[in-house]
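Handout, section B. The chain below has 437 residues.
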Amino acid sequence: MKKRLVSLALAALMILSLAACSGTAAKPTPTSQGANETPAIQPSSTPTPVDDGTQGVTDTEILIGNTCSVSGALASTGIPMVAGLEAYLEMVNESGGIGGRKITYVHRDDDFDPIKGKAYLQELVEDVKVFAIVMDFGTPVVAATVDDLKSYGIPTVYFATGIGQLYAEGATTNADGVNLFPVQPIYITEGQLMTARCVANFNARKIGVIYTNDDAGKDMMNGAQMKAQELGVELVSQQVVAGTADASSAVTAIKSEGVDAVIVAAIQATMPTIVKEMVAQGMDVPAITSYVNCSMAMTDLIYESISGKFDVYANGWLDYTTEVNQEAYNLYLEWIPEEYALNAYAQCGWIAGATFCEGLRRLEDSGEEVTWTNYIAAMEEAPVAIPFGAVIDYAGGMRTGTQSMNLFRCDKNDPSGIGWAQMYPLESIDEILAGVK
């Protein structure tokens, strides 16, 4: 155990970088069991179904695995995520495991390559025979393997992406994704939350959406449209090319509609282009954007332009300020290698481990056998508390990722020094809309 203290002031610096998934890490050699040998890549177009039951479970061990890039361009993300997951499992195993079983983690380095990711998943499920996949990593790999995960029916907890293929409101079968447990915000859910914020916090009855033509933009747009229809508010939209340097026609069209607020459904490079064009065309309504943009890097790009014109808001999904979450963060600090104490991605790995183990603890408490069917039922029986975050309710096949987000306003002069000031705490859509008539 690695005991030390880091001030809550330093913890506060992580709120937005974790929300935005930004940060860097040193590159140590991964220590995962079954580490990084490269098998022959022979992806199967149709995975072999595995019967529900005892795969990966003995009287003394539960075997889990994942593929996660710890080499190449995404190493600075994958390495700390693996370190965070390993730290949580170390804590669990040193206390005797769960139900008398220790957890063994098998990792494969897919180099952020969907072909490798698909082949390694097949190996982990069919040859290594892991009980669960924990912390499935990266949009291209997840997109290439999500149908295989559904076909296998293997419990899969935490996806390091927000793609819409993970979204389901009433999953009952593997084909629906009942075996999948997303934790990070899914863009469809985030689009719904942003619409709720526009209505409740900005008093908007007509909302403009400028969205990119990639999956992230389209999914946020779809979520916004779903919630606007439900709430009976008007929504108008314009699409732009992801990465465009010219959003003038889209902004002109949205401005001409006389909207009360704008959802900027674009991530990273495209968001500042849209916001600056809103300034250039004299718009003065509030804008809200994705948690992915909630970082100092984005503040540096837009703050001088928007100052005195209008406010830009962004979502977050974690909060270190509550007593419960402070305690969770201090526990993390006791176990994580020191170089990752303030690393956003390492915290994601820790969250993945904690979420997965919650299902096992519920089976231990109930005395139920550790099977896939029982594990899925255990995860659905009550909301799951997320370290540093709120809770996720998987009941009734709800697979929508985190369902509570906080709201930050772009402010380079905020005393926290993070470039964004928290305006509203972690709230669900129902909580956000509680006072709306």
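Note. The first helix runs from residue 8 to 12. Compare this with the example in section A.
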